[in-house]
Design goal:
This protein has 142 residues and is mostly helical. The chain has a domain at 87-124. Helix content is 66%, strand content 0%. The protein has 5 helices and no strands. It has helices at residues 3-10, 12-25, 27-40, 60-71, 82-127. It is flat and about 90 Å long.
Length: 142
């Protein structure tokens, strides 16, 4: 039984520890080890390498796709009660609409405040006496 098969028996933590240790000791060995892991399929949940598959034979990528489908990116999956699911969807839709309306209201308030501040600035500027003309630095003939 070789070193690689012993590390394979321990699993992913052993490979990660070996890579980190090799980078600490001598970085070219760490790079070589990463290239080997990628080439051999021991990295990135390869379908060829069975140790990183789930117990039922599916790989981690399929598991993630199933999880994403079940949770619909942050929303819980169906509870099994159609009436409750419809009520929940309607409530969430109303909350999202209220949130959008509130953001629009805040944007209008900010725009009105900005407009008032700008108008005040322009009124103050108009009320100042004009600045004296700048001197060009040329000497006048005497």
């Amino acid at each position: 039984m070789g070193l690689i098969s012993k590390i394979d028996d321990i699993g992913r933590p052993a490979w990660i520890a070996l890579v980190v240790l090799s980078f600490i000791l001598f970085w070219p060995v760490g790079v070589a080890l990463l290239v080997y892991l990628k080439w051999s399929g021991r990295m990135f949940c390869s379908k060829r390498y069975g140790h990183w598959n789930t117990p039922d034979g599916r790989n981690a990528r399929d598991e993630f796709r199933d999880w994403k489908r079940r949770h619909r990116w942050g929303r819980e999956a169906s509870t099994g009660n159609v009436a409750f699911d419809e009520y929940r969807e309607e409530t969430l839709r109303k909350l999202e609409e209220d949130q959008r309306e509130f953001r629009d209201y805040l944007d209008k308030l900010r725009a009105a405040k900005d407009r008032a501040e700008f108008d005040q600035f322009m009124n103050d500027r108009r009320g100042r006496p004009p600045a004296p003309p700048a001197q060009t630095g040329e000497a006048s003939p005497a």
